[in-house]
Design brief:
Layout: H1 2-25, H2 30-37, H3 41-54, E1 57-60, E2 76-79, H4 81-85, H5 89-106, H6 108-131, H7 138-148, E3 153-157, E4 163-167, H8 173-178, H9 181-194, E5 199-202, E6 211-215
Antiparallel strand pairs: 1-2, 3-4, 4-6, 5-6
Helix pairs in contact: 1-3, 2-3, 5-6, 6-7, 6-9
């Protein structure tokens, strides 16, 4: 009986690690998760199947097939809404509470200033990385920079030679649901980094599956003035 309980505890800990990694990386293959966890893909799938059964993880077919040799394209695993809710909600509650206090104590303008400061920090960190990249390659470079920060971002062609940048995970989702100023300031910063007018088509904070940014085909190769 003690052995069974110990084994169950170990499984719960591993599944907590899988959920935490999906929260950090966004949609991922079993191979990617296994590599990060020091496990085989088959070993991770056993835990993923259990998480799917409990409703905290789901599967999706990637828009661009993940190459893994012969056979069917690799599946992506992602957290469901329940899976996100099972994450570090205490930190979300603390951050949202701090934002509400800021709004009550100093007004909505203070919230907008905070959002602009946060977006400015993102812009400053990405600026040197993007300024070294030719204009047409900037959306992909921006997606890579966002992915390094946990946004699980990708790009794909859109109508009229434009591009869509998709962020499959939002680290501030629950706070942004209450304070859309965070999304608005971030969008403005991404537009400045790409030196063009961009349009947010969807956001996770508003209930969409991904945050989608439309980037016109006129992205220049120089720095913004």
């Amino acid at each position: 009986m003690q052995f069974v309980e110990t084994e169950r505890s170990a499984d719960r800990r591993t599944r907590d690690r899988v959920r935490a990694l999906l929260l950090d990386l966004g949609p991922s293959t079993a191979a990617t998760l296994g590599e990060r966890l020091g496990m085989t893909a088959a070993g991770v799938r056993r835990h993923l199947d259990a998480l799917i059964a409990e409703g905290t993880v789901t599967t999706a077919t990637p828009r661009r097939p993940v190459v893994r040799g012969r056979g069917r394209p690799a599946r992506l695993y992602a957290l469901t809404e329940a899976g996100h809710a099972a994450g570090p909600s205490a930190y979300d509650d603390l951050a949202a509470g701090a934002m509400r206090f800021l709004a009550e104590a100093a007004g909505e303008q203070a919230v907008e200033q905070f959002a602009a400061r946060r977006a400015g920090d993102i812009e400053q960190r990405y600026r040197a990385r993007l300024d070294a990249v030719p204009g047409p390659e900037r959306p992909a470079a921006l997606a890579a920079a966002l992915s390094d920060d946990g946004y699980a971002a990708t790009t794909e062609p859109a109508a009229g030679a434009s591009t869509q940048l998709c962020q499959h995970h939002c680290p501030v989702q629950h706070v942004a649901e209450q304070f859309p100023q965070l999304c608005e300031a971030e969008t403005a910063a991404l537009g400045r980094l790409l030196d063009t007018h961009v349009q947010r088509l969807a956001t996770i904070a508003h209930g969409d599956g991904v945050c989608t940014l439309h980037i016109p085909s006129t992205t220049s190769g120089g720095t913004s003035s």
